[in-house]
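User: Modeling request: complex.
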Amino acid sequence: MMLRHFGLATTLAATLVLATPAYAVIELQWWHAMTGANNDVVNKLAADFNASQSDYKVMPSFKGGYADTMNAGIAAFRAGNAPHIMQVFEVGTATMMSATGAIKPVYQLMKDAGEPFDPKAYLPTITGYYSTSKGDMLSFPFNSSSTVMWINKDELKKAGVAEIPKTWPEVFAAAKKLKAAGHETCGFSNAWASWVHIEQFSAWHNVPIGSKANGLDGFDTELKFNSPLHVKHLQNLVDLQKDKTYDYAGRANAGEARFGSGECAIFLTSSGYYGTAKGTAKFDFTSAPMPYYPDVAGAPQNSIIGGASLWVMGGKKPEEYKGVAKFFAFLSDTDRQAKLHQESGYLPITKAAYEKTKADGFYDKNPILQTPLKALTNKEPTENSRGLRFGNMVQMRELWSEEIEAALAGKKTAQEALDAAVSRGNAMLRTFEKTAK
Amino acid sequence: MEKSAVFNSSRLLPYALLAPQLIITFVFFYWPASQAVLQSFKREDAFGLVSEFVGLENYHALFAQPEYYRAMLTTLVFSTLVAGLSLLIALLFATQADKNLKAAPAYKTFMIWPYAVAPAVAGVLWFFIFHPSLGTLARPLRGLGLDWNPLLNGNHAMTLVVMSAVWKQIAYNFLFFLAGLQSIPKSVIEAGAIDGAGPMRRFWTIVFPLLSPTTFFLLVVNVVYVFFDTFGIIDAVTGGGPAGATTTMVYKVYADGRLGGNLGGSAAQSVVLMVIVIALTAVQFKYVERKVQY
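Assistant: Request completed. Predicted assembly structure:
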């Protein structure tokens, strides 16, 4: 008798305990891939948001590099416990877009939650990348960047290079001078080989990477970057690699340390490198637009963005989505955006934040941060420079880098390497087309 | 007289006793393996939203890729080097540690340490030590006039991953060889010595044959290791590059499945890999085991 009552009491108590979470804070998982100074930025944003209200708690967690984070998210989705917010780099966009049902489009999220949201408030060069052809924003741009050329001004001066090179022939000449002045292992270099030498290079010269506006207009796209201009450029790199006037620095961005250490005085990589450069480089440095070939008509065109956006995963509870929407509105705040931009070097995503930074006179003191914005808006974008959207792009980039490496190592000619990159890439696009419907 | 246990109490008891082992084998081997086989006949998007049966299409696509044959060749080179070197070096170290040394316990402990390092961490360590422009050991190499560049030179990259994988595996092999050596009765070796056999002769005619069960076990384990467990090292050190020079079969499974989101193609590759390893192990048991003296 006693026992039965005891059992009843515990059941009742347990029910009461289980019923209370309505009062608890709703936790929102945010998986990201930010390292170094930018990791601190992410944690600070989350902490600020959590302090600004008491209903939701954003919990950032670092999941490794961009590809790792995306894979972790996909694996978690398959296992039924995806995070609420997932940071995905721009090349993962096609994969995420085609996963209807796995994601919650941002425009839908904001509408459902009733948060004020005006897609026109965002910079079109950035949101265009993450929107459907109808202009519906699918993911929330977070850290956007573009390729710039980082310049070690002290070393250039020492080597007798009076002006920052503007064209590729000028870069080659400057690199030769640098090499002669003691930079024996590296005249110039770059990170993200395929991004810089294929993707950005094509947009900047207004030549297609692939058909269908680089895949933006449909998944039945074919790669086109084995043109004579691409071959000529790769051939130049191959020739310069022989005596290290150009020296390849690996696929991802580990090679950026070669700029910070002073080994490479000219280095092409993301504008998002600013935060790290500021912290590590002990010399006078600046950024300049990517070089171009002056004999190409219309060059330079405009650059395209890189970086990452925040995707909202599908299948979550409405009240959780409300929290995510609140967080995005919080991120879009003009002052916060302007500060984020000025500290991290990533691009502002709203027009207001850009105007505010300009009006504050920030760019007069820090022209470095305006370089990528100027390059992005250099000209009205064309079919070839709006952006790119290829399926399986994560692995395709590895494949393109593989072929660039084969050419630089002298295993293939520049033409053979680019032909192989195009034909292997096309095969992958066809596989993707079959699964993306 | 034959000795056998009889279970009178219950017919179920033997099965119950076997169950834990069988369940573990089923859950961790048969079930995932059957999933891989099933997956290899399907085409699916990365998120698993669309899935369709495509028969042998994944296998056809796989064997039409010249890169796959290249990966097979790379695997052959890589596995021979890693298994061979790690066994040889570990045997050498174990025979030395088995002698009456003053600092033997410390020496043995240090030898076993690398095994506690996770493959990815080991990979990152080696990547930075030998990074052409950041590495502490790469600079002296360059100073010697060797144009060390694993970022572009496939042979250098292969050397680097082989070194990392061998370094990692020596500890494990060392431990087993040492245990094997210590279980060889001293009297047998002493008898050989009295009969006038030198150290080399004693090793090859007495110690090595008596060690053969250990050697055989390690051979099987090492082959499995190089085929399956080395992708973490390759991923951290070279990412399969440059130009695919260190893309082994298991790394390609990872690259196509995880980076490429092509799970069907990746599953087909793991089935092929599984068949190869099963065949290799069978061959080892059939032909090599004959020479083993238990």
